Task: inverse folding
C-alpha cells in the first residue's frame, strides 16, 4: 500500500461533479490504425512498469489518514481501453469535439484512475489516442516520463508478451485505520529529523540571509498584484460541460522571438497567450483599462533529476499577471519577462519541497474539508491556469506508427474557468484550451488570438533584426504605440 502525499490528496479531494480533476492529451498518428487488440496487448505488456495503473484509491475510515493506493482485485483493462471512431474522413474539428466530450467526463473514482481511447476514421488514414489520468496520480512532468508506457523511439521496437498479474490482498478497514494512526505519529518526526543539522544551519546563515533579502524584494511585487485590476469577469461558477480548442506554433518561431527580443521561450509563450486573452476581452467589450491583467497560475516543477519517474506530484506554482491592457506586444513581453525573472530568484531562495511537505502536518479530515470548501467557494485571485510541459524533440512511435502532433488537456476548478496546456514535440508547440462551456462560447477567439500573438511577435522580431536598435539593448526598447 502507498499513501498519497498531501498534495496528491488535495487533487483527489478537489474532484466533484462539475470539476473532474484529470489531465489528458490527444495524440494524432500516421496510419494505418492498429487493431484494438494490439493496443490492449501493448498496454498489458507495459503495465508492470507503472504499477499505479492497476491501483485504485481507498479512503481511510473517518478520514483519519490520507487516502491509500491499493491493488484493484477486479482490474480489467478492457474497461480502461476504449475504441471509437469519427465519421470518415474525420477532420480536426470532429476530433476536437469528440475529445472535448471524452475529456469532459469524470473518471470512475472506484476504479484505477485512467482511460485511453483509440480513435479511428481521421482523414489521410490517420488515427488518434485520447488519454486521461487523474491529477492525483501524476503531474505533467512525470506524465512526460510515463510516455514510456506505450511510446517507442524506434518504429521497429519489439515488446514483451503480457505477463500474469496477481493483485495484493485488499487491506481491511482496521488495517487502514491502524496504518493511518501510525503514519500520523511518525510523519512529523521524519520531517523534523530530515531538517539540516545545527552545524549545517550555521554554515548556511549567509545563504539564508541572501534568501531573506530576495524574498523581501519580492513582497512589493505581491502588494502590487493585490492592487492591480484583474479581468474578474473570467472567474465564476463552473458547470458540467467543457469547450476545448487548440492552436499551435513552430518552435523556431518562439526561438526567433526570444533571440531578437530577449527573454525565454516560456516568456514568449505567455506573451502570445496574453494577446489571446486581450482579443477575448476586447471582443466582449471588457478591455476597460491599460492596467488590466489576466492573472494566470503557472505550475512549476520542483522535481529533481533523482525524482524523475516517481508517480507523486512535485509541483509548486507562481502567479503571473498577463498585461492584456497593454497595446504594445514588445512591452507585454518585457512585463512578462520581468515577472518570471523575479519568480526565478524567489524560487531559488525558497525551499519549495519543504513547504510542500508541510502539508504532511495537516490532519487529513481538515485537508479534505479545506480543499473541497475552497473549490466550491471559488476564488477571484487568478483567472486562468497556464502550464507548459516540455515534450521530446525526437519522433515517438506506437506500434510502429509515428506520432504527428499532441495536445495537452489541463483541468479547471475553483472559479478558474479556463486552462491552457502547452506541449512541445519535435519542432511544434501546441496549445490545448479547456474552458467552461457556458462561460466561454467565444473560446475560438482565444485560440485564434494566441496564434495572432505569435505572428505579431514574429513581425517585431524580424523588424528588430532588419533594423537593429543601437540605442538600447535587445528586448529593452521603448514600447511601440498602437494596438495590434
Result:
Amino acid at each position: 500500500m502507498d499513501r498519497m502525499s498531501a498534495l496528491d490528496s488535495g487533487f483527489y479531494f478537489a474532484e466533484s461533479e462539475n470539476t473532474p480533476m484529470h489531465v489528458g492529451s490527444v495524440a494524432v498518428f500516421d496510419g494505418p490504425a492498429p487493431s484494438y487488440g494490439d493496443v490492449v496487448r501493448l498496454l498489458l505488456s507495459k503495465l508492470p512498469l507503472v504499477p499505479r495503473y492497476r491501483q485504485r484509491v481507498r479512503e481511510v475510515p473517518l478520514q483519519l489518514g490520507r487516502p491509500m493506493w491499493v491493488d484493484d482485485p477486479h482490474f480489467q483493462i478492457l474497461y480502461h481501453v476504449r475504441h471509437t471512431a469519427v465519421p470518415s474522413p474525420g477532420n480536426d474539428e470532429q476530433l476536437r469535439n469528440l475529445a472535448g466530450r471524452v475529456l469532459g467526463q469524470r473518471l470512475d473514482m472506484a476504479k484505477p484512475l485512467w482511460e485511453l481511447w483509440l480513435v479511428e476514421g481521421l482523414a489521410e488514414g490517420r488515427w488518434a489516442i485520447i488519454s486521461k489520468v487523474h491529477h492525483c496520480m501524476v503531474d505533467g512532468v512525470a506524465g512526460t516520463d510515463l510516455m514510456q508506457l506505450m511510446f517507442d523511439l524506434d518504429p521497429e521496437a519489439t515488446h514483451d508478451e503480457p505477463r500474469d498479474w496477481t493483485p495484493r490482498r485488499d487491506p481491511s478497514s482496521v488495517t487502514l485505520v491502524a496504518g493511518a494512526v501510525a503514519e500520523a505519529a511518525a510523519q512529523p518526526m521524519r520531517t523534523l529529523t530530515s531538517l539540516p543539522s545545527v552545524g549545517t544551519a550555521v554554515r548556511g546563515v549567509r545563504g539564508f540571509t541572501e534568501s531573506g533579502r530576495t524574498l523581501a524584494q519580492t513582497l512589493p511585487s505581491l502588494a502590487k498584484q493585490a492592487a492591480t485590476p484583474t479581468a474578474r469577469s473570467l472567474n465564476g461558477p463552473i458547470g458540467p460541460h467543457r469547450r476545448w480548442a487548440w492552436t499551435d506554433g513552430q518552435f523556431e518561431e518562439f526561438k526567433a522571438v526570444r533571440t531578437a527580443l530577449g527573454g525565454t521561450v516560456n516568456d514568449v509563450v505567455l506573451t502570445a497567450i496574453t494577446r489571446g486573452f486581450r482579443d477575448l476581452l476586447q471582443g466582449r467589450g471588457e478591455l476597460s483599462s491599460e492596467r488590466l491583467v489576466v492573472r494566470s497560475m503557472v505550475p512549476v516543477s520542483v522535481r529533481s533529476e533523482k525524482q524523475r519517474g516517481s508517480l507523486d506530484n512535485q509541483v509548486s506554482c507562481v502567479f503571473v499577471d498577463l498585461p492584456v491592457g497593454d497595446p504594445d506586444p514588445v512591452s507585454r513581453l518585457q512585463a512578462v519577462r520581468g515577472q518570471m525573472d523575479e519568480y526565478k530568484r524567489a524560487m531559488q531562495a525558497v525551499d519549495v519541497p519543504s513547504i510542500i511537505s508541510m502539508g504532511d502536518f495537516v490532519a487529513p479530515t481538515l485537508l479534505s474539508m479545506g480543499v473541497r470548501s475552497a473549490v466550491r467557494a471559488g476564488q477571484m485571485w487568478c483567472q486562468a491556469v497556464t502550464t507548459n510541459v516540455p515534450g521530446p524533440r525526437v519522433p515517438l512511435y506506437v506500434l510502429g506508427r509515428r506520432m504527428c502532433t499532441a495536445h495537452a488537456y489541463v483541468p479547471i476548478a475553483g472559479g478558474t474557468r479556463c486552462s491552457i496546456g502547452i506541449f512541445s514535440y519535435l519542432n511544434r508547440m501546441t496549445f490545448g484550451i479547456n474552458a467552461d462551456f457556458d462561460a466561454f462560447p467565444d473560446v475560438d477567439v482565444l485560440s485564434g488570438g494566441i496564434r495572432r500573438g505569435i505572428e505579431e511577435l514574429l513581425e517585431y522580431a524580424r523588424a528588430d533584426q532588419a533594423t537593429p536598435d543601437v540605442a538600447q539593448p535587445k528586448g529593452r526598447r521603448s514600447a511601440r504605440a498602437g494596438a495590434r
